[in-house]
Amino acid sequence: VLWSALALADDGERQLSISVGDWPPFFVESEPGQGAVARLVRDIFAAEGYEVKFHFLPWKRAYREAATGKHDATAIWMFAAERQKDFVYSEPVMNERFVLFYRKDTPIEWSQMR
Q1: pTM of the shown model
Q2: Helix (H) or strand (E) holding 15
Q3: Neighbour count for residue 55 (Cβ, 10 Å)
């Protein structure tokens, strides 16, 4: 989760506005619970007494609106150093491992990613 500096001020507010993009199965606006990571983030904050409202937007707009203070945070993003000028990174919400699937009868031979 990327936190805007404005969101880090302790003003006693117990509601958080988090901008996200639609990214099934992690964030899904039309699904009950709004996706696996949405449920996880909501549950983590609920345990600390916060209510989370997700705002589904196109990804660039989700980032921009959080960066300008319209939302407290935006989720979920991979680390990129240039984002540190706008946000403070949380601890990782999830760990992913991207893999390539290929057919057993048509193996792909390669030794490294470029």
Answers
A1: 0.77
A2: strand 15-20
A3: 16
